[in-house]
Design a protein that fits this description.
single chain; cAMP-dependent Protein Kinase, Chain A; elongated; mainly alpha
């Protein structure tokens, strides 16, 4: 690769690392959600952190990753629409 090509890629490395980490987090959350859904826990009796981890964290992480990638001018509306549009993928896990 030429020096010019390297100079163009180097500024993108932090963003690439960020998205790879987000992807890893989302994958881990999916695995954790699958494990916990098998255990059928009463959500009302869970501590706050466990409740959030099992109900909203997976979809929030995925939505935030898309939000960071697309950077829309109205991020709150974008995230709200994303959550409503994709909630069916996550509702079975609760």
């Amino acid at each position: 690769m030429s020096l010019r090509g390297r100079r163009q890629i180097l500024p993108l490395l932090p963003m690439l690392i960020y998205f790879l980490l987000l992807q890893r987090i989302v994958e881990n959350e999916k695995i954790n959600a699958e494990k916990t859904s098998k255990q059928k826990v009463d959500l009302q009796s869970l501590p706050t952190r466990a409740y959030l981890d099992q109900t909203v964290v997976p979809i929030l992480l995925q939505g935030l990753a898309v939000l960071a990638k697309e950077r829309p001018p109205n991020p709150i509306e974008f995230l709200a629409a994303y959550l409503l549009k994709n909630k069916s993928q996550f509702e079975d896990r609760n």
